[in-house]
Amino acid sequence: MRKSAVDHTSLLLRIKPFVHWTLLAVLLSVGLGSGPSGQVQAAPAYAAIVIDKHTGKVLYSRNADRQRYPASLTKAMTLYLLFEELKAGTIGLKTEFIVTANASNQAPSRLGLKAGDRIRVIDAIRALVTKSANDVAVAVAENLAGTEQAFARAMTVKAHKMGMKRTQFRNASGLPNSKQVTTARDMATLSIRLMTDFPSYYGFFATRTFTYRGRKYKNHNRLLFKYRGTDGIKTGYTRASGFNLAASVRRKRKHLIAVVLGGKSAKKRDVNMMNLLSRSFRKAVSYNPKKQPPAKVARRQAPAAYKPSPRQPIRIAAPKTKTRAKRLAAEGSRDGTTGDKRPPARKLKAATAAAATGPYHVQIGAYGDATLAREKLQLILSKAGDLLQGHPSITIRHSDPTIKLIRARFVAFTETQARTTCAKLKKRAIACFISRVN
pTM for this structure? Predict the structure, then answer.
């Protein structure tokens, strides 16, 4: 009896570790990372699509409508909204965006911008395309919509209007957010819209290298260097998303758009993408101008990066009350498109504030265009309205008519108020100085 009991106990001791490890494995397989839409996945899930650009026919599809994490493919939509502003004339390629402390503190990949820096729109575009810089993405969002959250609402509204119904954005960079999701089909739709809606700007996606402040950056999209006919568009990676890639490739009269999500490594993703494209080219239709009216086909873009003509100086259009991004963000707030439950920003009660008086001005910049000066004043108000309440904003032309500069200022300060306000603005990475007006 005793021997039997000992043998039984010994057996349990041998079985118990096995049971524990088996149970742990089962729990891990069920509980590790709940993916989008309730999908259970312990590792990034694969999805892909290949589309014949000329016919719209899907040549390959796997999990094309299953939600996945976009990672830095997000920046393709950030650029779409930026291109809209360029096309509308609210900004120009030489317009400078102000970098906030929030933008400068983003996780890598970064361009290394500091709070208070300024970056031209043309450099911001190239940094997003090549370096995939998160600090630049946030700077674009904040300058166009006031806040990144508002810009994300605008991104989602625009995506849904394009037919990207299974896409939601929560930020402008693609940094991890469990509610920021898309599909391979939606990203292919966005890729096609970028080249058809902005033929003058799509060429930026072919930029192979970009030099900024003496440092050279190479495009993360390696297909530009090793797969013939590639003219864009974007890569992306986070641990949750895996290795993503959207690509556009043209050979002779054939044009393919392809998206791969959830690759296991950059190399495997690229090899997979090239294999899909090579097989799909055999089935793609050659564009025949005699059989297919040119109006139904997007104009072919040169793979070289876009360069503005020196004969056509870039100008900023007539004053506009709001950028398109701000209007889309407001639309998203009304219909709850993004599901952002955060309370709206507190409105300033300037009308009830005591009238401010004083001979001192706080200047936040001088610009070559009155429209830009007014836009900067509105941007500063959106960021520091609590400090400037009751102080009107004005633009002042330089006293020398040969100097075409427009000063952007807030007025009616005492000396103490002006110095205190400017010091507080600088703590928020807003450049300023004070002046007395006689």
Answer: 0.64
